[in-house]
Inverse folding.
């Protein structure tokens, strides 16, 4: 890993929180993600199962976390399973974790090698009444690939058909949605890396620069600050391409007079930042660009003002939509007749703002957390309204990351330039 070691208390605390929600005499078993082949003998870069990482901080393949809080043998109440280091394999693929290193990362005292776990697991399972197994229950899941966690579910049910099986994901959705301060500190570090990178870009961007050159600057800046890399594929969209929400080609020239929308974030210590800023390629907003930008910033500030404990995402989105309607009337995108005659299932403002306003953020960019229950203190959300105008070949989005508190929120990106005046001043100094 490139990042500095995290505080193991993060993972110790997370396991305690999960164990507290388990039924008596239960065992919970979490398995790592697959290593996915690409072509030939090559593999895609390994990405750890987010739930396993949340519980242990371990990023190595072929790992497991086993929690059995009622085990009569106290040393087996928390177990970390790792692949046994192999000298030959390490010559090809690099060093694997030793037991003491894994203990320091996870705070788990008992380390068991993968090649000896089967006999131990059988004994523990026979002592338990309930078995918690993990599954991917992210609301945004859209994959038909049968991953290791689902294959493991099949294996366990085949080997132990008479046990009572329970969903670990149901507990994790609630727990992972609420961040402890130590987790937010790591997110803040990822945000600080992202801020430094954005400020660097303000001095780099000019007419004639290619979108991929900006992406290269982002990658360089991230890695030079110990980031793991990009939290997601950076969106560097100049001109009309800014209306494409997940534009990742990043292969066109940024031209004089255009706005450029940049949606990017650093990944650090397993946690992610998610920033969007829209700036003028030449460093100066036109009058119309400024008008639309300030309308978007108004929506951004309005959304932040109502994002607090007790409100639901549905009501929150509805209120932002109402405010968007008023702003779009003000800047000439909508007429009163458009609003009067709108389809209530497809509101008029949706022509110019056709995506959601916020999502959970954490170990996953679209992190676990409910979208149907009221927002709670401790959650971390993005706030990212946009305005996309086909007839003007313009797209603007402004995004910050907020930590919800008891009485409101803390804007984790409050120090990142956001106003027209701030952006123009900093770009003028280059």
């Amino acid at each position: 890993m490139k990042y500095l070691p995290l505080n193991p208390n993060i993972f110790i605390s997370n396991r305690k929180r999960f164990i507290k929600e388990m039924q008596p005499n239960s065992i919970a078993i979490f398995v790592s993600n697959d290593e996915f082949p690409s072509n030939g003998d090559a593999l895609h870069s390994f990405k750890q199962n987010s739930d396993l990482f949340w519980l242990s901080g371990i990023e190595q393949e072929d790992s497991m976390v086993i929690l059995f809080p009622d085990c009569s043998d106290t040393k087996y109440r928390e177990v970390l399973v790792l692949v046994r280091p192999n000298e030959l394999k390490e010559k090809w693929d690099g060093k694997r974790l030793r037991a003491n290193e894994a203990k320091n990362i996870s705070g788990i005292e008992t380390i068991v090698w993968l090649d000896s776990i089967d006999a131990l697991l059988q004994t523990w399972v026979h002592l338990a009444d309930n078995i918690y197994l993990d599954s991917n229950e992210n609301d945004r899941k859209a994959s038909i690939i049968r991953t290791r966690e689902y294959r493991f579910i099949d294996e366990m049910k085949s080997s132990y058909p008479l046990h009572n099986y329970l969903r670990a994901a149901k507990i994790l959705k609630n727990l992972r949605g609420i961040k402890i301060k130590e987790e937010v500190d790591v997110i803040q570090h990822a945000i600080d890396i992202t801020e430094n990178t954005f400020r660097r870009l303000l001095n780099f961007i000019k007419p004639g620069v290619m979108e991929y050159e900006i992406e290269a600057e982002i990658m360089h800046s991230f890695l030079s600050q110990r980031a793991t890399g990009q939290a997601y594929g950076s969106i560097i969209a100049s001109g009309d391409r800014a209306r494409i929400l997940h534009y990742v080609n990043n292969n066109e020239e940024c031209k004089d007079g255009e706005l450029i929308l940049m949606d990017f974030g650093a990944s650090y210590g397993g946690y992610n930042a998610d920033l969007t800023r829209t700036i003028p390629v030449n460093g100066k907003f036109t009058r119309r660009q400024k008008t639309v930008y300030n309308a978007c910033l108004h929506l951004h500030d309005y959304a932040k003002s109502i994002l607090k404990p007790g409100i639901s995402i549905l009501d929150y989105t509805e209120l932002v939509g109402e405010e968007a309607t008023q702003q779009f009337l003000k800047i000439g995108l909508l007429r009163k007749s458009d609003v009067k005659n709108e389809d209530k299932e497809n509101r008029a403002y949706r022509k110019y703002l056709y995506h959601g306003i916020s999502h959970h953020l954490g170990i996953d960019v679209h992190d676990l957390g409910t979208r149907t229950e009221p927002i709670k203190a401790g959650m971390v959300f993005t706030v990212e309204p946009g305005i996309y105008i086909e007839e003007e070949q313009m797209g603007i989005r402004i995004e910050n990351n907020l930590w919800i508190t008891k009485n409101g929120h803390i804007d984790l990106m409050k120090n990142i330039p956001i106003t027209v005046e701030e952006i123009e001043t900093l770009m003028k100094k280059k």
Summary: Residues 271 and 363 are 4 Å apart (CA to CA).
